[in-house]
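Risk register update: the risk of archive-format incompatibility is retired. Evidence:
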Amino acid sequence: MPFEKLLINVEKQWQGFNIIRYNTEDGYSGRCFYYDLVGTNMSEFYDILSNL
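Archived output:
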């Protein structure tokens, strides 16, 4: 699946993150990928990113 850019979406309550593809024709749309980190908690990582 081709892409030009990737957007990584992290939410505090999730146990993984979402990767969303971008291409010139459609923008940020179409198929995306959710990577489940199996039992982890994204809240600390979310807080770090929010404070950058």
